[in-house]
Amino acid sequence: MVTARTTLLAGLFLLAPWAAKAATEATISCTDMRSNPAIFTSEVDLGSGHGSPTKVDYHCPESLAQLPITQTVYQLSEQIRNQYPWPGCSGSIVYAQWRYYHWALLQAGLAPQQLLGGKNSRAHSDKTWAYLARWALQSPSQQRLYQALRAAVDEASPALTQHYQSTAQLTPAEAAEASERALAIMLYWAGGAAPGSSDTHYTPELPGIVQTMATAPLTLEQLNQWLSQHPDAEPHTVDLALKSAIIHQQPLAVIHRLITVSQPLDQGDESALFFALDNPPALTALLQAGADINYRNGFGKTVLFYAIERGDIAQVKQLLSAGANPNQRYLSSTELEEHAMCQYNIQHGQRTPLMHAAQHASAPMLKLLLQHNADTQARDEQDWSALDYARHNQRQSNEKALLLHSTAAE
Fold first, then answer.
1. 92 and 166 share a domain?
2. Is 362 helix (H, G, I), strand (E, B) or coil?
3. Rounded Cα–Cα distance for residues 93 and 85 (Å)
């Protein structure tokens, strides 16, 4: 029987001829890695900046970046990390981090035996999940990515375990451990870490009340008990509790109570109102409590933009009736600080809700905005009007609606 130990020893004996080849050609092919898995335990120099002294084929089908069963986890990790590859924002080290990350994914795919043992990866994973759980409460889009990653990891874990049993001849226990450690590589990447780097920039775990609401309904009595036990709870903590209650569809009485004690009501990059688009009763409660309907996120987007993108005409009508500004603009490039420009990479500053609707919504949505005095003559920083957005995105019905409105206004 071929064991993980004998496979690794065989790779060590085969490493010498590869080393001689690498010294002259500085290339590593998929064939090299398949025949010599000990390559992954040698000191391969992948560089520290834009370039690398070693050329590696990172696209081997065995890589976790290529395996169908790990594709969703891989793609979501990339989205969550959201790292920009240009040196002006993040430095050339991102190229090296990408290479070492994909080297680790190759190792996990071609030599999973080497993942066994070592430090406790579960403790590190738990910290990363805790970090991502807090990160997910910054905006609804981040919450959706977090939930999707959770589901993808749960789905990939047994499939990858079975894959390791059949392709690497690992025992069930070994395969399960290797699967956990392999998926952790992508999890750490999502959390902002890179192979060989220090841990993710962890934040404290979410308050217990927030964690509870993610798993079970909370009664008003339980909430009042928590509030009495934490009379000096920081505003940020109460805000997290409110957003969590909205996300997890907690009873409306619980949401109402949190609204009354949340001061200020509008906090964070995206306020509780943004989270309430998926919870209509909570949205109404927040509006009745005086939530700022024109509260803007880091690049100037209000909740109206998101409602338009969702295509919910009734909800957009509710927001407009409550005072949403149909001519509120994104921030301009000069208003965005350097770090924010890197974070958001806004190409069309000064966009308006009508422009957004011309690109993302329907003609009835445009008509609703026009009824509320949306400005058809407004132009963004690239000198685009709403009509330009409709044309460039091939939204013929939207283009027609805007042209008809212009003709009628003449």
1. yes
2. coil
3. 9
